[in-house]
Amino acid sequence: MSDSKSSSSRRGFLRSSSAVVALPLLESLRGRSIATTDLATAAVPPKRMVFLGMGFGVTADRWYPDVKTVGENYELPKILSPLTGHQKDLTIIQNLMHQYSADGHSGSTFWLTGANRYEIPGQSFYNTVSVDQVAAEVLGEQTRFTSIQLAAKRANEDGHGPGFSLAWNRSGKPVSGLDTPVAAFHRLFSNDTSPLAERQQRLNEQRSVLDTVLADAKSVNKKLNKTDNQKLDEYFQSVREIEVRLAKEEKWLAVDKKTPADPIEEPSESLEGFEEIRMMYDLMVAAMQVDATRVFTYRMPVNALISSLGATMTAHNMSHYSEGERRTVSQNRDTAHAMLLAEFIDKLKASKEVDGSSLFDNCSITLGTNLSSVHSLTNCPTLVTGGGAGIKHGRHLVMSDKKTPLCNLWLSLLQGSGIRADSFGDSTGRIDELFQV
User: Fold this and answer.
1) What CATH class has 10-189+259-435?
2) In terms of C-beta density within 10 A (0-12 exposed, 13-18 middle, 19 or more buried), how is residue 188 classed?
3) pTM
């Protein structure tokens, strides 16, 4: 192979609605680097996982296919018609739910965890690790960012404001998110131009602060009650997580972030709703192409989305639809999500990996929410696509048990993506139907 052909094969492309830009030569094909192995291993594309949270449910009597038409012989609902061209690559699953979710206002909070908020007697809130963070512990070992959390730019009136993501750490504490395309762009692609020694000094100062607070914490009277000991353990866990993050930042300190050969322009601050989501999808594709991270969550905007589609009501009011304007707004929202997802799939399919496969072939994507409609927590809307988890797509699955744990899906995606997990949350086992023809 000539050098020019070799160089071309190592390039990827970011296709947005306005431009096609070449990405840099992929380091994994030019020998060893900080985040790569040898050529034989690097030629195998990595697995990636994406979790897209819609929030506020769907138009339930229009979003799901007919329960009488299962398997391949189902008709995609009109409301999801923008996805028709990808129907053979989709799986829609019915009758999944979280048995402990009894609060219709906390759908996003427990969607990726399945936790029982009242698990600890006398405590009004409790959560556990989210499935994306379990995946990130494995898939994120070799990337600059262990995972990336994207969030809504504005509060969605569901109790969570800007920066609140779908991710929860091992202590059941929220992981903050990047709540604008601009913030995501700079986090993923902008390099710190300050001198290396100055950046190293900043890390050392942060470590010094950690050492001080850790010493203070250890000096606390050992005669603590059970509740205080639990709080102290959570504190130590938080410190350990910061230490791990600092260690990873130091590892990548002298390595520039990969950027397109023709730089991606910084997104406009004015992007909201439909265009905001579209740009976040473009940034996720670009991040996968340069292997900045392999695990994403995106808590998508709802108020801003329906506003960008011309609605004047709030997301909460829309969710209490009946016949009339509220239902129309709800349906338009659902179709907009289908349009955006179809574009996202197009871009992932168009971006080739080093072995000739596409990003889509090596990525699992879940679009869903913990609510079906209004405040109903049964039959969580669930659409899975992408080839990364080995799912046999092109089907409509209706679980025989109407209370099948949603965590069974999370366990299935983990195992299908090569992550060792015997259980997750309240799972009772993987969904074998997903992998059977």
Assistant:
1) alpha beta
2) buried
3) 0.84
